[in-house]
Design a protein that fits this description.
- With 138 residues, the protein is an all-alpha fold.
- The chain has two domains: 2-78, no CATH class; 92-137.
- Helices cover 80% and strands 0% of the residues.
- The protein is built from six helices and no strands.
- The chain has helices at 2-19, 23-54, 58-78, 92-116, 119-122, 128-137.
- The longest helix is centred in the N-terminal third of the chain and has 32 residues, at 23-54.
Length: 138
């Protein structure tokens, strides 16, 4: 869910900034965006906790999948394209292709670091994360 938020939040804010041009309206739009995000996070946690306490863990997945299906259906039916004719294409060659392997390597290094905290207990040397983190930084 955090990864989804990392993709969705900047995207929705940039859409708001480009669509709403008047300063006062932009402030109101960002206020509404922040309020709905906060309510969504709170309600999502409460609903997920209730589902986990009263049903099984798959009910959370089914609820999220149903919500996503409804959101995509409404999006396809209501939202029109807003891309300008002079808008450049997304640069996938240098951006996503270069950054994502480094981020994945960093996550593996951090996860390995957690595992290495128990290294003296399980007999391993505990040096694996250093290689991942060095490769990420370079």
């Amino acid at each position: 869910m955090g990864l989804d938020a990392a993709f969705v939040d900047p995207t929705t804010l940039s859409i708001l900034s480009n669509v709403v041009t008047e300063r006062v309206e932009k402030v109101e739009a960002i206020d509404i965006w922040g309020a709905t995000t906060g309510v969504g996070v709170a309600c999502g946690l409460i609903l997920s906790g209730w589902l986990l306490n009263h049903l099984w863990w798959g009910s959370v997945v089914l609820t999220l999948a149903t919500g996503a299906f409804i959101a995509i259906t409404v999006y396809v039916a209501v939202v029109t394209t807003s891309r300008g004719p002079s808008t450049p294409r997304i640069d996938l060659s240098t951006g996503a292709v270069v950054v994502h392997p480094h981020l994945a390597n960093c996550v593996v290094g951090i996860d390995s670091e957690r595992a290495c905290c128990d290294a003296p207990l399980n007999g391993s040397s505990g040096t694996a994360p250093r290689g991942h983190m060095r490769a990420t930084v370079r």
